[in-house]
Amino acid sequence: MKKEKKNECLVLRKKVATLIEDLTSLESYILDLFTFSPLPICFVSPIGVILEFNPAFEKISGYKFYEIIGEGIKKIFDEEEINKLIKEAMSRKEVWAKEMVLFTKERKEIPVSVFAKARKDEKGKAVGLFVGVFDLTEIKRTERELEEKVEDLEKFRKIAVGRELKMMELKEEIERLRAEIRGEPSQEY
Amino acid sequence: MTSQAITKEIIKEVMAVKGEVRGIVFKTDADFVLKEKGKESLKAVEEELARIGYPINYQKLKTMNFYPLGVRVLSLLVIKKVCHFSNKDIERMGAYAPKASFVVKLFARFFFSVAKTAEQAPKMWRKHYTIGRLTAESHEKERYTVVRLHDLTIHPILCSYLSGYFATIVQMVVNAPVKTTEIKCSHRGDEYHEFLMKW
């Protein structure tokens, strides 16, 4: 009986050791994935407190995780806009590509596209949300450059068309003068 | 006082306390030393721990494994000594820990109300320590909470550390700066440790 108990205990210990090993591997996997992600991701509580912040978010915002965890997300987004987004994500469970402005630690403004998804507990209640952002700086710059080019082309087109019209006017004037020299009656148009 | 001699008596006393703690706490301590003092200091901490007979390789510790609580307290004492930390620095170290702890993240889903977090406090403690019992009272409307730690008297350095630790947890819930005061302490003859946190 005693031996049986001892064996049972040994089996239990082995099971616990295996579980701890699995948990450690899982933790390491999650951490590696979170650290690797080139996209800024954070986890926010339902009242808007940042609870997790990955290295890509540190890079874009200029905040170290230990400076921003425990702070309100309104520190990096416009308060009204982010409250609206939290509300939307918590009720609709997902917000996709909402254009917003991210404020860095140096108060620089970065245009971003924001994605948010509520995290639910086992009863289906939203207990926080994942927030991911996509930096739109390059896209906005390209957009601006394209707009400028279109504007330039438009100006050029106007100049070119104007020049063409002027040429036609001049041609007509020359023709009219030639006719006058030749003594032909002038043509009224 | 920024450092304190770690005498044989102190080592014997802290090592006599039974109980274990999860490896994650060593990891967050090491992270804090790296952030504040750099690699050389962490190496010096490891060397000092080896010198007093309790070698630790912070890198190799497993976050989810359990290690003797006494060793953890020695680790704190050695960090304080080698890095010339004050009690306030140890409090800052405690405040840093929940931000970097994976175990705390498991409870993040309860961080939407002080009452809910207070309800989870004993479980949160048990996920880290096999000794001691944590209870918490929520007074959300009055903007304060009280945390009591029963059945654990090991070394006052843990009180400084926990002051910072609990403050960050509450800050994560209330989204406001939190001030912690240890109003009762078993090292001062009280029955338990009592931390008052106001925001």
Overview of the structural elements:
The complex is a heterodimer of chains A (189) and B (199). Chain A has 5 helices and 5 strands; from the N terminus they run αββαααβββα. Chain A has 189 residues and is α+β, with helices and mostly antiparallel strands. Chain A has a 5-stranded antiparallel beta sheet with strand order 2-1-5-4-3. The longest helix of chain A has 45 residues, at 137-181. Chain A is rod-shaped, with a radius of gyration of 34 Å. Helix content of chain B is 51%, strand content 16%. The model of chain B has no long low-confidence stretch (mean pLDDT 93). In chain B, the strands form 2 sheets. Chain B has a 4-stranded antiparallel beta sheet. A two-stranded antiparallel sheet of chain B has the order 1-2. Chain B has helices at residues 8-16, 24-37, 39-51, 69-82, 87-100, 102-105, 114-128, 157-174; strands at 20-22, 66-68, 133-139, 144-150, 179-184, 193-198. Chain B is an alpha+beta fold. Chains A and B meet through helix 1 of A and helix 5 and helix 8 of B.
Topology:
The complex is a heterodimer of chains A (189) and B (199).
Chain A: H1 2-36, E1 41-44, E2 50-53, H2 55-61, H3 65-68, H4 79-92, E3 94-103, E4 109-120, E5 126-135, H5 137-181
Antiparallel strand pairs in A: 1-2, 1-5, 3-4, 4-5
Chain B: H1 8-16, E1 20-22, H2 24-37, H3 39-51, E2 66-68, H4 69-82, H5 87-100, H6 102-105, H7 114-128, E3 133-139, E4 144-150, H8 157-174, E5 179-184, E6 193-198
Antiparallel strand pairs in B: 1-2, 3-4, 4-6, 5-6
Helix pairs in contact in B: 1-4, 2-3, 2-4, 2-5, 3-4, 5-8
What are the main properties of this structure?
heterodimer, A: 189 residues, alpha+beta, five-stranded antiparallel β-sheet, 5 strands, 56% helix, rod-shaped, B: 199 residues, four-stranded antiparallel β-sheet, two-stranded antiparallel sheet, 6 strands
Structural class of chain A: alpha+beta
Category by helix and strand content of chain B: alpha+beta
Strand arrangement within the widest β-sheet of chain B reads 3-4-6-5
Let me know the average pLDDT of chain B. 93
Q: Strand order across the biggest sheet of chain A? A: 2-1-5-4-3
Mean pLDDT of chain A: 90
End-to-end distance of chain A? 123 Å
Largest sheet of chain A: 5 strands, antiparallel
Number of strands of chain B: 6
What is the tally of beta strands of chain A? Answer: 5
Unreliable segments of 5+ consecutive residues of chain A: none
Shape of chain B: globular
Distance between the termini of chain B: 28 Å
Could you spell the SSE succession of chain B in H and E letters? HEHHEHHHHEEHEE
Amount of beta strand of chain B: 15-25%
Most extensive interface: A-B, 24 and 21 residues
> What's the gyration radius of chain A in Å?
34 Å
